[in-house]
Amino acid sequence: MITIEQQIRNLLIEQIKKHDIPFEGEIVIEKSKDPLHGDYASNVAMQLTRVLKRNPREIASLLISDIDSSLFDKIEIAGPGFINFFVKQDSLKGIIEQIVTLNDHYGENDFGNHQKVNVEFVSANPTGDLHLGHARNAAIGDSICRILEKCNFDVTREYYINDAGNQIDNLAKSIRARYHEILENNPNYPFPEDGYHGEDIYFITKQIIDEVGDKYLNDSEEGYQFFKKRGRELELDKLINDLKMFRVHFDVFSSELDIRNQGAVEQVLEKLKNHIYLQDGAYFLKTTDYGDDKDRVLIKKDGAYTYLLPDIAYHQNKLNRNFDLLIDCLGADHHGYIARMKAALEMLGYSSSKLEIELIQMVRLFKDGEEYKMSKRTGNAVSLKELCEETSIDSVRYFFVSRASSSHLDYDIDASKKMEASNPVYYAQYAHARLASLLEQGKDINLDLTGDLLNEKKEKELLKIIIEFPLEIVDAAKNRAPYKITNYIQKLATAINEFYTVCRVIDRNNLKLSSARLGLCLASKITLKNALDLVGVAAPERM
Predict the structure, then answer these.
(1) Rounded distance, CA 115 to CA 145, Å?
(2) Residue 108: closest CA among 533, 421, 436
(3) DSSP 8-state code for residue 186
(4) Among residues 22, 56, 317, 346, which is most buried (max CB within 10 A)?
(5) Is position 20 within any domain?
(6) What are the Cα distances from residue 94, in Å, to 7, 39, 91, 104, 466?
(7) Which residue, of 87, 117, 142, is where some domain finishes?
(8) How much is the pTM?
(9) pLDDT tens digit string along 236-268?
(10) pLDDT value for 92
(11) Pairing of strands 116-120, 325-331
């Protein structure tokens, strides 16, 4: 469907061509914040000042002098040269039938133009439960994917398994210690210094005993490698199941171990050899040549690779799969990672613009007015699964994307469970359930989808908001910003509630008006459901 914003842009493009104005930039159309300034505005006249070397008000006057104004009540020039468009109510009404026809597809657009995008997120080490940082990463990463898909990007969700480093060695050692402890009833069996003490290790070890019994009680390299392989598999299965519960799935799981075994690290070293130097027994990558603040170690004095080297090989692996863009969702502590990875990609012949890194700040939990750090059940940090059980999946997903990823988030467990308007999740879901109830009550009334009888102020305001939905999605996609969708959801829910309060939807003495208002209810319900889906939140029919 073509939105009004797109129609205005097309009209301005026609005018620019008609007057032979050389212009290749993007024409910006913005929603007016003040109704006195119309519904939409453009600064295109000011953009053309440098080209035409004329006063922007004169340029604006030229552009609108013979423009097709059939969509508008009026078009005016304001300030230094803004063009304000006042949309006719009749132009808004046709949206209802379009939304009902499109249903789940409403909001889809071609902004992405089938570009292939790889979004890597979560990528937690398979050594324990998913915790709050992983949870926010999952919520934001998955929402970015949903938004990009709505904009016709070809999205691949990817999870990178760090399974070749010390953390997996420590996992194997931890399982081996629990194995002896359980089978020999020996609570004093030596536990590795950097081992994992979580209860999940105990349960995984019990499962391994169910599978192999005491086969590896006599310590051996074979047993150690089995604990490493099987422990990694069981931990990863647990993470995947928790993510499925959280409504997150992945298309691809890439293993660091596989990348190393394929010789990819050595191949990257060969390609980077002209950018590497030896100093004090270690090999450094000259990332300062590409804007980094210091050169980075690739191979330590003892010959071990730093994490950066296999990460470079992994990113080349992704680019070899012909993605147009890579998006990595990482914790905020990876700030220094951006320059070094972009530098490495440039050394390999890629544009640094091929990689975007979204840094995601941490979450603090609060309960009973105090910060809530440790689980009373396990004594460890609160896990994703436990938090969802304590509150709800909808609450965690919604709140965790409701602020920019670069902003810290305080999550109040008590506030998130309140069934009142102060809880934005409840407020939005209740608005959807209210619309569903109205439509159920009026199911015997034929729907009028023309919008011809919708003349009240709150009806018009609601129409304007639901017609903005595709534009809001594009804005969120451009900025990789799911919080823009939650902002829109709150604005839409408020407009729905105000419409419901002021306008009597079902009036058996005025079925024609009821029919029109129920049509608006259905279009609003579809829009709200689609918006909630973009952030992975359910749209209940009843509450």
Answers:
(1) 13
(2) 533
(3) -
(4) 56
(5) yes
(6) 14, 17, 6, 18, 12
(7) 87
(8) 0.89
(9) 999 999 999 999 999 999 999 999 999 999 999
(10) 75
(11) parallel
